[in-house]
Amino acid sequence: MEKSIFLALFHVLWASLLMFQPVTCSSNFTDQEALLHFKSTIEVDPTNTIKDGNWTVDENFCEWIGVVCSNRRQRVIALNLSYMGLQGRLSPYLGNLSFLASLDLSNNSLYGRIPIEIGRLHRLKELLLQQNQFEGNIPPNLAQCRNLEVLSLDSNRLTGGIPREFGAFPELQQLLLGYNDLQGQIPSFLGNISTLQVIQLRKANLTGSIPSTLFNRSLTNIFLTYNYLSGSLPSDLCYRWRNLQKLALSYNQFSGLSLETLTQCKELLVLSLSGNRFQGSIPRDIDSLQKLQFLLLGGNNLTGTIPRTIGNMSSLQVLSLSTNQIRGDIPREIGKLVNLNSLILEDNLLTGEVPQEIFNISLLQELDLNDNSLSGSLPSSREISLPNLETLDLSQNSISGNIPQYISNFTNLILFNAALNQLSGPLPMSLGNLKNLIVFAVASNQLTGEPYGSELRFLSVLSNCPSLQTLDLEDNPLRGSIPKSIKNFSSSLQTLFAQYSQIRGHIPEEMGFLKRLTYLKLSGNDLEGNIPSLIGGLKSLQRLYLDDNHLEGPIPDQICNLTSLGELVVQQNRISGSIPNCIGNLSSLQKFLVIQLRKANLTGSIPSTLFNRSLTNVLLTYNYLSGSLPSDLCYRWRNIQILALSRNQFSGLPLETLTQCKELLVLSLSANRFQGSIPRDIDSLQKLQLLLLGGNKLTGTIPRTIGNMSSLQVLSLSTNQIRGDIPREIGKLVNLNSLILEDNLLTGEVPQEIFNISSLQELDLNDNSLSGSLPSSREISLPNLETLDLSQNSISGNIPQYIPNFTNLILFSAALNQLSGPIPMSLGNLKNLIVFAVASNQLTGEPYGSELGFLSVLSNCPSLQTLDLVDNPLRGSIPKSIKNFSSSLQTLLAQDSQIGGRIPEEMGFLKRLTYLKLSGNDLEGNIPSLIGGLKSLQRLYLDDNHLEGPIPDQICNLTSLGELVLQQNRISGSIPNCIGNLSSLQKFLVRSNNMTSVIPVSLWSLQELIFLNLSLNSFNGGLPLDTGKMRALNSIDLSQNQLTGTISSSIHELKSLAYLNLSRNSFQGSILQLIGDLKGLDFLDLSYNELSGTIPKSMEELPFLQNLNLSFNKLSGEIPNGGPFKKFSALSFIGNEALCGNATFQVPPCKQNGKKSTRDKWLRSLSIMLPIVSVVLLVFAICLLKKHGNPSKKAPVSVENPPGIDHPMISYRELCLATNNFSRSNLLGAGSFSSVYKGTLANGTDVAVKVLNLLIEGALRSFDIECEVFRNIRH
After folding, report:
1. Is the pLDDT of residue 771 over 90?
2. Given Cys at both, which of 102, 372, 691, 1054 links 78, Cβ 3.0 to 4.6 Å?
3. Cα separation, 1170 vs 474, whole angstroms
4. Taking the CB of residue 1229, how many other CB atoms lie within 10 A of it?
């Protein structure tokens, strides 16, 4: 009876629940599965709409972004994910969305074929797939979508034509297939679609004519531009297409249509017929098209005049009649077109003046009258203003008079072109008002400068136009000199044409400030004096024309700084001297009988025909050319002076062959595949200035005969396998500028003779096996040396005292050697020094000083930016004079350098410092509050020192800080509440300090944070409820603190998280059920807390989880056995009495009913306690042995003595402190299963700590055997 009552009550409750639920059916699952499969095929989701948005099974799919469901059935009726940037294939499972009416995936990057399953969507009305990368044929079975009204597949990579089945669409209104490679003709069966209104087949490679069947349909919009269509249109077109609004046939081959025909299409909004073969004239009754907004008739064969009735077309916005043969005046009536934006009449036969009425159209943005026969002056009214005008092109006419002053009122003007006219008078001084001007072109007129000025002052005015890129003044009688204010164009001007413009005077030095200038043409003027040396500042210059002037003096060497220069023309001047030797460095130069195909992505070999030409310069660098060169190359190219083949894949050329090219000045073969050795008779190339053989596979030694090549300026043999000593004979190369021998197998000492080459600017011996001391003579001086790189060798001895004699030195690197002794106190003489790097040596400070005095000295180097002192026994403190680096120093690296004392307050004056690393030293005291003055600091490393006191609040002023590492100190107090101000912070590590208090809430607002480690402190309190903003977090370590409360429920939103350690705290509650969302999680340690509840089944979905520790909590229930749990051992779960599951976890099996027996509980307790007791016995057995071996040592202090155990227990925290956090310096040895570390407990007792690698099979068995051995020793 009771059972019947219960069942009846249950049915009543269930029915009442259903009343408040939406109507659903099993097909909802089909929709959800289809959407999830679609999600799985998406590879890239830049907006994270699908991959990391709300497209999860935890939310109703009808609430997913882009999904619309029906109210009653809750079935998907619309899917809109347009403009999302999605990339991937289109899932065929979308064909299962049987209620779908609209599918819009346009403007993404979807690729592959369009699934044929889309044809199953019988309710579909809109299919919008345009602007993707779909390929292959258009599926014919799309025609099965009988309700389809809009089909848009344009702008893809579809091929194969329009399927015949499309002719059977019963409801289709819009067919958009343009911008695909359809080819063929427009199929006639499209005329069978009675409902068709819009057809768009732009740029589809279509040929033939428009099929006659299409003229039987009431189309409204037709877009067939950019095809190869031809033929004529019917004379009754407007009768057939009586509702036609847009007709776009531009850029085809149509002909034979009388324009009078189209005046009957009263509904036309757009008429675009440009780029065809239409003839005839514009009809007088064109104004009957009162709704027309766009009239594009350019690029045909139209004749006649522009009818004055065109001024009645009040809706017209764009009128383009360019490139026809239209004659007569421009009708004044055009001025009545108040909505006109663009008037394009270029390239016709128009005559007469430009009517003033045009300048009354306030909406006009573009006025192009270029290439006609217009004459007379421009309107003279000062009140003219076209505030929206952007383009004014009057070029190639016969317009005369002055440039009107009102041009300066066109404040939005971007382009002004009046070239090739008959304009005269001075250029207006008000042109500087045109702040948006990019192009100003007035070439080939009769314009002048100011009538009484010697300088061309209008140039000073135009320099106020901040966007001006092109200035064309060619062929005008300007009669003046270039002002020094030309430098004001430095940020914008790219092209300056002023040839044949009667410019006189000198080329001002200030011309060298035009850093963006690419083309400078001053030919045919009256320029005099020298070519200024500052012209070398035109770093972007590609073409320089100074010919046909009165210039004199030499070509300055600085011209060789123009590394982009391709054309240098200085003929017909009075230039004297020689061509600069460095001209060969201009690898883009295309004069002097040069083949210059540098960096052109060329492949294959050099064609044999080229070896039959008497070439002098061959530059083919930075390509992918291969093959070998002929052995008689020097006979074929007997006058070869520059041979540059670097950065290719050439091989097979014996270098002995090239010793016969006696005229060679430059031989550049770097970065190829040449083998062999440098020939002994290399010195036969007596004219050679540059020898670049680096980056090949050369072996052997450097021949001593190389010292006879007296013209050599650059010798680069880097990155080969050359052995032996550096020949002393190199010291005879008195013209040598660069000696680059890095990355070889050279041995022996650095010869003193090299330091006698006074012209030497670069000496790079990095990464060899050189040894011995550097030359010791105090008289050595290399006044031109800029780079000295001795790093990665085995050079010993002191840094020589003569290094400060290299007064032009920019870079000194001697890192990774065996240098010793004090750093010289005379380094302050190096006023140009930018980089000083001596890391990983045995250098010290002054022998009797407590401060590092050399830092005070180096602060006298005003350009020093990088100071690298890493890993040297400096043994001193940082002086207060460190503040003298304030204007230059950007990087200071001094970790592991035995620096002691305090960090001086003066460190805060280094306002340009971006990177400060003082890790692993003996620094003590507080972090100075003035450190907040390091406004540019991006990385701060003070870890592994003896710093104490709080983190100063001023550290929050470092708004550019990205990395803050303070771990392994004695810092106390709390994290500043203002830590949230450091919005750029990516790394925050304060592990192993004495910090307390609650973790500030502001820390959890740092959205850029990637690494967070607060472990081994005494933080208390709980975690905030919302940590989901920290989406970049990869690693969190809060272990070994005093944190309480529950684990934040929002932690599952940290999708980038790979490492999470919350162990040894007092967290309560359950493990977050959604932890399975952290798909990238690799390490999870929640051990030694008070967590309860079950282990979430979702953790089986963590594919990358390698390390798991949930031990010593209060967890219960079944241990999951799927996914990563298959590789975990019992130690991951030890200390949780209520767990059950697989026997491999050493827990009892889970029982469905009944209570556990006493025997089961005893066995489970035993399985948990045995490993614990074993670990304890191992540690104390080792301690006991130590104690017997050294009776004077005190016994370790007992932390906790459980009943029945009379040996002291040591906490994990004590072991960390004893072993310096298991530092590598404490490692005694490592075996197959474990590592052993030495340590010293707080009471002075020495211990050895063994750490097992429990991920290795057999580690536990090895541990058990060792315990047995210790037990036998004990007894």
Report:
1. yes
2. 102
3. 96
4. 11
Gap between the Cα atoms of 433 and 24, Å rounded: 68
The answer to whether the CB of 414 falls within 8 A of the CB of 389 is no
pLDDT in tens, 155-176: 999 999 999 999 999 999 999 9
Q: Residue 1274: is its pLDDT beyond 60?
A: no
What average pLDDT does this structure show over 495-505?
A: 94
User: What pLDDT, in 10s, does the model give residues 1106-1148?
Assistant: 999 999 999 999 999 899 998 999 999 999 989 999 988 889 9
pLDDT digits (tens, 9 = 90+) for 824-871: 888 888 899 999 999 999 999 887 668 898 898 888 889 999 999 999
Distance, in Å, from the CA atom of 198 to the CA atom of 178, rounded to the nearest integer, reads 12
Q: What pLDDT is stored for residue 603 in this prediction? A: 67
Task: Report the run of H or E that residue 991 belongs to, with start and end.
Answer: none
What is the DSSP code (8-state) at residue 1243? T
**DSSP assignment letter at 668:** E
The tokens 């001024």 sit on which residue? Answer: 311
Question: Is the pLDDT assigned to residue 180 strictly greater than 90?
Answer: yes
Q: Report the pLDDT value the prediction gives residue 73, as an integer from 0 to 100.
A: 87
Token code pair at residue 534:
């500052």
In 845-897, DSSP assigns E strands to 866-868, 876-877, 891-893
> Amino acid identity of 584?
G
Token readout for 922 is 């003996």
Q: Span 907-922, mean pLDDT?
A: 94
Give the span between the Cα atoms of 377 and 355, in whole angstroms. Answer: 10
Q: Please name which of 993, 991, 1045, 1041 lies closest in space to residue 1018, comparing C-alpha atoms.
A: 1041
The pair of three-digit structure tokens given for residue 376, joined into one six-digit string: 């007379």
- Given a contact cutoff of 8 angstroms between Cβ atoms, the answer to whether 447 and 425 are in contact is yes
Mean pLDDT of the 1097-1101 span: 90
Please tell me the predicted confidence (pLDDT) of residue 49.
86
CA 529/CA 548 separation, integer angstroms: 13
Q: Residue 369, exposed/middle/buried by CB under 10 A (0-12, 13-18, 19+)? A: buried
pLDDT in tens, 558-580: 888 888 887 777 777 777 655 56
Is the pLDDT higher at 879 or at 12?
A: 879
Structure tokens at 1247: 């211990």
Model confidence pTM above 0.85: no
**Which contiguous run of DSSP H or E holds residue 970?**
strand 970-973
Name the residue among 1012, 1024, 1070 with its Cα closest to residue 1048: 1024
pLDDT score recorded for residue 654: 77
The two tokens of residue 617 are: 């310069």
- The DSSP line for 682-743 is GGG-TT--EEE--SSEEESB--GGGGG-TT--EEE--SS--EEPPPGGGGG-TT--EEE--S
Identify the helix (H) or strand (E) that includes residue 12.
helix 2-19
Of the pLDDT bands very low, low, confident and very high (cuts 50, 70, 90), residue 812 is very high
Query: Please, what is the average pLDDT of the chain?
Result: 86
Q: Contacts by 95-99 with C-beta closer than 8 Å and gap 24+?
A: 95/34, 95/119, 95/120, 95/121, 96/30, 96/31, 96/33, 96/34, 96/120, 97/31, 97/34, 97/35, 97/121, 98/27, 98/30, 98/122, 98/123, 99/31, 99/70, 99/73, 99/75, 99/123
- What residues are paired with 440 via a beta bridge? 416, 471
**What are 1108's strand-pairing partners?**
1084
Contact 839, 816 (CB under 8 A): yes
**How would you class 71 by CB atoms within 10 Å of its CB: exposed for 0-12, middle for 13-18, buried for 19 or more?**
exposed
What three-state secondary structure class fits 1224? helix
434-457 exposure pattern, b = at least 16 Cβ within 10 A, e = fewer: beebbbbbbbbbebbbbeeeebbb
Sign of the dihedral through C-alpha 535, 540, 542, 543: negative
